[in-house]
Amino acid sequence: MEETSREAVATAVQRVAGMLQRSDQLDKVEQYRRREARKKASVEARLKAAIQSQLDGVRTGLTQLHSALLDVKDIQGSLADVSKDWRQSINTIENLKDVKDAVVQHSQLASAVENLKNIFSVPEIVADTQQLIEQGELLQAHRKLMELECSRDDLMYEQYRMDSKNTSDMNLISIYFEDVQGLSDELAKQLWMVLQRSMVTVRRDPTMLVSVVRIIEREVKIDRRMVDRKKQSGFIPPGRPKRWKDKMFEVLEGTVSTRIEGTQSVTREADKMWLVRLLEITRKYVLDDLIVVKNLMVQCFPQHYDTFNRFFGLYHNAVSSRVKELAAEDLEANEIVSMLTWVLNTYKSVEMMGHPDLASECDINALEALLPQDVVDDLLSKYVKTFTSNITGWLRKALETDKKDWQKETEPEADQDGYYQTTLPAIVFQMFEQNLQVAAQIDGDFKEQVLKLCLKQMNTFLIRYREEAVTYKEEHLRDRQLPQCYVQYMIAIINNCQTFKESINSLKRKYSQSSEPTDSDAAIERTLSEVAKEGCQFLLDEVFLDLEHHLYELMTRKWLTGSHAVDTICVTVEDYFNDFNKIKKPFNQEMTSEALRRVVVEYIKAVMQKRITFKNADERREGADRMIKEADQFKFLFRKLAAVSAHETLFTVSTSITGGEDTDRLCGAIAAIAEVFKLTDPTLLFLEVTTLVSKYPDIREEHIQALLAVRGDASREMRQMIIGTLSENKVTYSAVTQPIFKDIAVPTITNTMTSMTSMATAKLLK
């Protein structure tokens, strides 16, 4: 027992020394300890299973004993008869005693004669066997070992048959053959060493591996024969059964585990790509080893060993244990991706276990998962959490960088079509693209999950983008000289909305299998539309801030006597729209439509504010002609701008503008009002006003009153008659046509005085 303990300690020391050959392996001491603990737990589990099996056997035995009891009773009756016959023949048996003694003596002498040569040559055979073991002649060494064991076992068996209680003779034989057990142990060590180096041995000297397997097969047969003899006689030689076959598989399992665990060559501190390198080395080792097993090692083992599938299972279990240990470590986000990509995709791919050279020998679909699903879910959850935090920081940093560009004194870059843009969409979607490519490597469902997360983060980002655009506009209004390229960068912000939309659709087409819209889609679409529309509104606000003074001149005495306000308005609008042509569709068309509408509304507001009252027919005619001329100027300008925005020529006859409004209809409102002013016969005024109301049914009573007040020659009774008649025959207007007069307020006397004061103040300040 003490010798066995010493050998166990020596083996353990040798194994630990093999594990800790390098200083960097000290970091894995805890892992080795956990692995040994798992092995211990496995042994305990097997013991429990064995005990349970024995209990089941006892239960079965009791049942059989009950059956045997009935048989015994029958046998007792038969034995009674036999005993009676035996007593009658006892004298005959006593006469045969001498013959029996002679037979036993003859058997012992025959065994002694047969083993006499071996008995006297035991020391010599022991020495030869030891030398053969040292020379690596394992097959011959085992043959001599079998001769020694056979001689010892036969002598001990005969001694047991002659006198099983004579322990002194048994001990004498054991002492004489004590070196045999040492030879057996030494030979076993050599066998295990060959098996530990089996991957190298099978390439260099496969006959050595074949010899080891033949020796183990011999021992299996001897174990089986000795166990059968024990059932018959109750005797079994010392050291039997050896169970070398079981030990062989344990050694092979330990060899595979050690090979997988020894693949880590660097640590995270030395190389950030340590895990990628580790997994690649593991992949290469496993694939190379299994190909060697299939092509070479299978030929060295008996067919009933099912060698390839056994090694296939050993490597799978070893890899599984290793990746579980790695998954338990504090992995970073990129390491989680590398791990899961390798476990879920690479492992069963043609690059590893599904390699064409192995496909004919195994079914990879029957393999259990390397990692339990709960571990995979935990790793995915950890990655998503880290990714969410990272993407939020990346988006915030990208927006801050873009905001700094907004303050530059140089214009933003233009794309290949000449539209202004910033680098923000490209940066954002490059980040999304990279992470989605990584997610696609792991799993299709996980890719969808990451895409939804990206869209959700995109919606939050766009809300912040909108807020920053508003802040940018407000800062500009404090000092309109800064930033110098405010208009150009606001155009770039609007264009970015279209780029964002196109990029999102591209990502969804590329990475989403579902065509169903998500909750984020509508929110993103709505936010992008709001950012673009507000950007367009900010640009138009910028235009009308420059036009404000000229708009104040409309419908005044100065305007009537020859102001160039409308000329200036047209030139200013056209100048701004030279920059607005850098806005992408459909926003450029919407800008043109909204600019026309605002110009017309401001012009009509000037009429409704009653800044002038015509004194006579000449003034009314002159003012009406001027209004018609200016309406034509607006019509020509915005047809031209609409043609440019739609990539048409200046001679295009089309007058449609995106948004459903018609240039003729908007500018026609000014001309229709002019016709009211131009009329010379007051008795026909009601008809003219009725025509105006039929064309623009959203016009209200206060608008009519303001027009008649500006005309200056309508009596109170006429105004009341016109208003009363129109009220009785009120015209309804269709919602399809966007109203013009609806949002135009007619100021009261107080508002008119305030407006006049503001105009006077503005003139004084100028």
TrEMBL record:
Gene Ontology MF terms in the entry: SNARE binding
Pfam families: Sec6
GO cellular component, one term: perinuclear region of cytoplasm
Assigned keywords, A-Z: Acetylation, Cell projection, Cytoplasm, Exocytosis, Golgi apparatus, Protein transport, Transport
Annotated InterPro entries: EXOC3/Sec6, EXOC3/Sec6_C
Protein's UniProt keywords contain Nucleus: no
Primary subcellular site in the record, as a coarse category: other
Gene3D superfamilies to which the protein is assigned, alphabetical: 1.10.357.50, Exocyst complex component Sec6, C-terminal domain
Keyword Acetylation: yes
A GO BP annotation: protein transport
Cellular localisation: Cell projection, Growth cone; Cytoplasm, Perinuclear region; Golgi apparatus; Midbody
PANTHER family: EXOCYST COMPLEX COMPONENT 3 (PTHR21292:SF13), EXOCYST COMPLEX COMPONENT SEC6-RELATED (PTHR21292)
Subunit: The exocyst complex is composed of EXOC1, EXOC2, EXOC3, EXOC4, EXOC5, EXOC6, EXOC7 and EXOC8. Interacts with EXOC3L1. Interacts with BIRC6/bruce. Interacts with MYRIP. Interacts with SLC6A9.
Task of the protein: Component of the exocyst complex involved in the docking of exocytic vesicles with fusion sites on the plasma membrane.
Protein family according to the UniProt entry: Belongs to the SEC6 family.
Record-given protein name: Exocyst complex component 3
Species this protein is from: Gymnodraco acuticeps
This protein's encoding gene: exoc3
